[in-house]
Amino acid sequence: MSRKDQIKSAYRFTGGHASLYDGMMTYSTLPGKAICRLVWNMDGEKNLRYLEQALSGVPENFSGSMLEVPVGTGVLTMPVYHDLPKAEITCLDYSPDMMAAARSRAELAGIKNITFRQGDVGNLPFEDEQFDIVLSLNGFHAFPDKDAAYRETFRVLKKGGTFCGCFYIRGGCKRTDWFIQNLYVPKGFFTPPFETEQSLRERLIKMYTEVNVTAVEGIGCFVCRK
Ligand SMILES: C[S@@+](CC[C@H](N)C(=O)[O-])C[C@H]1O[C@@H](n2cnc3c(N)ncnc32)[C@H](O)[C@@H]1O
C-alpha cells in the first residue's frame, strides 16, 4: 500500500464511531472536519499533504528500529505500521489512556512487532543511539519541557538516523494562532513557547547534519539526519 493509501486508510479506520480527536486528526468526521477548517484552515488535501511530509522520513519498506513519541491514540500511525512487518517499533506516550487506544488499534490490526511504554519524552527510558528513526507527530507543541524533548529525541537516535514529524508552528496561519493563544493554551492542550518555521529550521540545523523543514498552514514538518 502506498503512503498516501496508508494515511487514507487511517481515515477509514476511524469509521463512524471515531472520537472527536481521531476524527479531527484524520479529517474523517463532520465535527473533525469542521475543526480542521475552522481552527487549522485545512481541507482533506492539506491534511494529507502535511502527514505525507511528516512521514516521508519513514521508508515504505523500513526494517530497522524506530521510536514514535508521542503515539497518542495511534490513529495516524497504526495503518503505516501495519505495512512495516520487519520494523522493530517502540511507541511511547505520557498518557496511559491515549496509549490504551493505540494498543487496542495495534491488536485489532494484528501488528505484532510493536512495544508500548508509558513515559516522558523529556527523560526517555532508552539507551543512547538506540533507534534508526525517531518519529514525532503533533507532540512538541504539547510537551512542557521542549529543550529536554529535543535533547532526548536526539540522544536516543543513532548517528545517521532520521528524526521526522510535525507540530504546530506560530505564524503559518493567523486564525490558527488566535485559537491556540485563546483556547488551546488556556485549556492546557498546547504549551508555549512555540516555534515559527524559521526558528524550527534554525534550531534543527544546529543539531542535525541534514535538515528539511516545510510548512502547511500552521503545521511545520521536518525530516532531519543526525
Ligand atoms: C496531540 S497528541 C498527538 C498524538 C499523536 N502523535 C497524533 O498525532 O495523533 C499529544 C500527545 O502528547 C502526549 N504528551 C504530552 N506530554 C508528553 C510528555 N512529556 N511525554 C510524552 N508524551 C507526552 C499526550 O499524552 C498526547 O497523547
**Bound heterogens, unique:** S-adenosylmethionine
- Biggest β-sheet description: 7 strands, mixed
Q: Biggest sheet: strands side by side, in what order? A: 3-2-1-4-5-7-6
Return the domain count. Answer: 1
Name some characteristics of this structure.
single chain, alpha/beta, binds S-adenosylmethionine, 226 residues, Rossmann fold
Describe the structure.
- 42% of the residues lie in helices and 21% in strands.
- With 226 residues, it is an alpha/beta fold.
- The protein has one domain (60-225): 3-Layer(aba) Sandwich (Rossmann fold), CATH 3.40.50.
- The longest helix is centred in the last third of the chain and has 14 residues, at 174-187.
- The site of S-adenosylmethionine has 19 residues, from loops.
- S-adenosylmethionine binds next to loops.
Summarize, please.
It is built from 9 helices and 7 strands. With 226 residues, it is an alpha/beta fold.
Topology of helices and strands:
Elements: H1 3-14, H2 20-25, H3 30-40, H4 44-55, E1 65-68, H5 78-82, E2 88-93, H6 96-108, E3 114-118, E4 131-137, H7 146-155, E5 157-168, H8 174-187, H9 197-207, E6 210-216, E7 219-225
Parallel strand pairs: 1-2, 1-4, 2-3, 4-5
Antiparallel strand pairs: 5-7, 6-7
Helix pairs in contact: 1-4
